[in-house]
Amino acid sequence: MAKKTIAERLAQLDAQREALRARLGKEERAKDTRRKILLGALVLHRLGEDKREFDKALKEWLQRELPGFLTRDDDKVLFADLLAAPVPTSVQAVPSSSQAAPTATDGTAET
User: Fold this and answer.
1) How many Cβ atoms are within 10 Å of 18's Cβ, its own excluded?
2) Model-level pTM?
3) pLDDT digits (tens, 9 = 90+) for 18-31
4) Could you tell me how far CA 50 lies from the centroid of its own chain?
5) CA 52 to each of CA 19, 41, 44, 72, 88: distance values in angstroms, whole numbers, following the listed order
């Protein structure tokens, strides 16, 4: 068996390094996916309880945030049951420009 040259050995080591980097990247993506799945499972579990104030606030927050976050129609279909429920007006952060400006209780407009 012929002895490998230094150049051949370096090429082999470079190939091994790239293979290890690819494996490491795959492991990191798998961990990231697992974290997202577990976090999503927790959120869905809490949404199903609807017993505590936090559960209600979480649901209201998701109803406000998800429509802007979801861009694909397929994704919107997955959350249709959650998005269908109206968000209470007391929780909405900023009224839309189409809504009338609030007025004071004495009939004068607030400025």
Assistant:
1) 10
2) 0.59
3) 999 999 999 999 99
4) 20
5) 49, 18, 14, 31, 17
- Per-residue buried b or exposed e for 68-82, using 16+ beta carbons within 10 Å of the residue's own CB: eeeeeeeeeeeeeee
Phi, psi of 8 (to 5 degrees): -65, -40
Helix axes 6-49, 53-69, angle to 10 degrees: 130
pLDDT tens digits for range 37-77: 999 999 988 888 767 888 888 889 999 999 999 999 999 99
Separation between Cα atoms, residue 61 and residue 67, nearest integer Å: 11
13 residue type, one letter:
L
Per-residue tokens: 107 = 């009939």
Cβ neighbours for 102, distance < 8 A, ≥ 6 positions apart:
110
